[in-house]
Amino acid sequence: MSLLLIIALAVAALGLIFAATYALARRMENYGIVDITWSYAFGALALFYAATASGWAPRRWTIAAIVIIWSGRLGTHLYRRVMSHHPVEDTRYTEMRTRWAEGFAAKMFIFYQQQALSVVILGLPFLLIARNPAEGFQPLEYAGVALWLLALLGESLADAQLAAFKRNSANKGKVCEVGLWHYSRHPNYFFEWCIWLGYFAFACASPWGWTSFICPAGILYLLLCVTGVPMAEEQSLRSRGDAYRAYQKRVPVFVPWFRKN
């Protein structure tokens, strides 16, 4: 199957999936479910590339497997978070309702389709890896998988520590400073970015793999400047006030590091 046909089919299929998600979101009155679909979509995309591309089979199915594991964990984590608050919508989407009040339905549908397109763009390393015909794994590929594994464990641990902290009613209104949160205000986001660095390192062993640098760069921009850290910080300041301001002064924002006295 040609490269253009593979990409065209991926764009069309994901467009339909996100359109169906949009219809469900309208029925539920909760547009935050797009985050769940976005996460699971990467696993589906990697599986599609592994099944249709013509690269060395062990490499194709290795990248599919690790993406499916990451995608499934993240999607399930987001599903639990979104549904635990339903019908209360994530603040990002309530703000969109206000900002896009005129023509909201059409604008939100376009937003959902943009999310579908972002999955295809960010999935570039998976396609390049799946098309690599060279037999045998290269050192960069081993390094990429090792980095991916460490990052996945770090992200899972950060999520588990925060969830355990929130389950304790005695911590209501307090700032989580346990475990990895003692050294970074957003260790989950940091390790999410490291996962994408792992995909990039894996892809660099394939022809044109270096072009997928746009993926970890794009994820870093989103996390630090758009939907990740800025919104999380804003929400924490609203809910925890001065306690969180003091936490901001003591603890690095992203990369885990030593605290300030």
TrEMBL record:
Transmembrane segments: 38-57, 109-130, 208-230
Keywords carried by this UniProt record: Membrane, Transmembrane, Transmembrane helix
Pfam families, A to Z: DUF1295 (PF06966)
InterPro entries in the record: UstE-like
Domain of life: Bacteria
One GO term describing the cellular component: membrane
Keyword presence, Transcription: no
Database matches in PROSITE patterns: S5A_REDUCTASE
Signal peptide: none
Matching PANTHER family: 3-OXO-5-ALPHA-STEROID 4-DEHYDROGENASE (PTHR32251), STEROID 5-ALPHA REDUCTASE C-TERMINAL DOMAIN-CONTAINING PROTEIN (PTHR32251:SF17)
Protein name: DUF1295 domain-containing protein
Organism phylogeny: Bacteria, Pseudomonadati, Verrucomicrobiota, Opitutia, Opitutales
